[in-house]
Amino acid sequence: DGGITQSPKYLFRKEGQNVTLSCEQNLNHDAMYWYRQDPGQGLRLIYYSQIVNDFQKGDIAEGYSVSREKKESFPLTVTSAQKNPTAFYLCASLNLYTDTQYFGPGTRLTVL
Amino acid sequence: EDQVTQSPEALRLQEGESSSLNCSYTVSGLRGLFWYRQDPGKGPEFLFTLYSAGEEKEKERLKATLTKKESFLHITAPKPEDSATYLCAVRPTDSWGKLQFGAGTQVVVTP
Predict the structure, then answer these.
(1) Across the interface, which of B91, B97, B101 has its CB nearest the CB of A42?
(2) B99: three-class secondary structure by DSSP
(3) How distant is the alpha carbon of residue A87 from its chain centre?
(4) What residues contact A93, with CB distance under 8 A and at least 6 apart?
(5) How far apart are CA B88 and CA B97, in angstroms?
(6) Which residues of B touch A45 (CB under 8 A)?
(7) What digits encode the pLDDT tens for the residues A17-62?
(8) Test mutation, B59, B98, B100, B105, chain A, max A CBs within 10 A
(9) Three-state SS for B50?
(10) Pairing between strand B19-26 and B3-7?
(11) How far is B89 from chain A (nearest CA, A)?
């Protein structure tokens, strides 16, 4: 089955800690994206990567970092510099032929 | 600045009661408009892509339409399993796959 997997499903972080969210896809898509979703707000773009070893900041990149060492993987690190990290995080990849983004199941991060 | 506004914020329907959701947008140039369905605690599920004014797409009880300034998602004779949040997103022509999302419309269909 082709798709996007995110882990863990739930993540709890203490203040001052960095945490890394995993995103893996086996769809052979070049471009991948990280979004943040808060109640009552639309999805907001954190980072995106068009190709391996390249990535760009989205609209709300402060306090986050990413890497793209493999086509299949695009992990997101939420650093202690992120002031309000409690949110639902969604990873997506882009099918260039249909111009459509497909999403993973999400990770809910809670800061204790 | 690109903007997407969805209305209403929430919609409660009786089973079989048809209705429409609105997505109005402001972009410098539209490459595509996308509709997604999202169930609580899950990732968005792709429904439709619309590219040009006048275009329509259908899937079961859902029909999406597009004009130059807005899109409608019509739900015909809804069932309780149509309960979800429906998200609208636009892809501007000058973006690299980046989508601008609206806040969504939460639909509840009661038996």
Answers:
(1) B101
(2) coil
(3) 12
(4) A4, A25, A27, A29, A31, A32, A33, A101, A102
(5) 15
(6) 98-99
(7) 999 999 999 999 999 999 999 988 889 999 999 999 999 999 999 9
(8) B98
(9) strand
(10) antiparallel
(11) 9
